[in-house]
Amino acid sequence: VQLVQSGGVFVQPGCSLSLSCAASGFTFISYGMCWFRRAPGKERELVADIANSVAGTNYADSVKGRFTISRDNAKATVDLQMNNLKPEDTAVYYCNAYHWDHNYWGQGTQVTVSS
After folding, report:
1. What sign does the CA torsion over 24, 29, 31, 36 have?
2. Collapsed DSSP state (helix, strand, coil) of residue 101
């Protein structure tokens, strides 16, 4: 099982950034997918969630209207489009796959938002 993340960089406030997570080794369409983040000195936070085949989404209040989670079941990928980034979005972002008692994690991607 692998969740391989890409896309993290250093960006200025107001900019946009897309994170991507490529999954392999499990039945992707059966799994819900999430993006979490952990900012320095803070608890891990669920940022966005997208259900399996029906693809319903949920977002943390802090990112609603700015972030969009999407999945491509044919490619087994999940993306997080982040717009109007703020310094408080600075964190390590983690891709997560969940299904019943199975839970898999990506390696983490540092996103830094600073002027």
Report:
1. positive
2. coil
Distance CA(80)–CA(17), nearest Å, equals 8
Element (H, E) at 79: strand 77-82
The span from the CA of 68 to the CA of 6, in Å, is 16
In a 10 Å sphere around its CB, with 0-12 CB exposed, 13-18 middle and 19+ buried, how is residue 82 labelled? buried
**In 3D, which of 102, 53, 103, 47 has the Cα closest to residue 79?**
47
Confidence class of residue 14 from pLDDT cuts 50, 70 and 90? very high
Going by C-alpha positions, the residue among 76, 80, 95 that lies closest to residue 38 is: 95
Name the β-bridge partners of 102.
99
Amino acid symbol at 25: G
**66: which 2 tokens?**
């700015």
Q: How many residues does the chain have?
A: 115
Q: For residue range 32-84, what is the model confidence (pLDDT) as tens digits?
A: 999 999 998 999 999 999 998 666 899 999 999 999 999 999 999 999 999 99
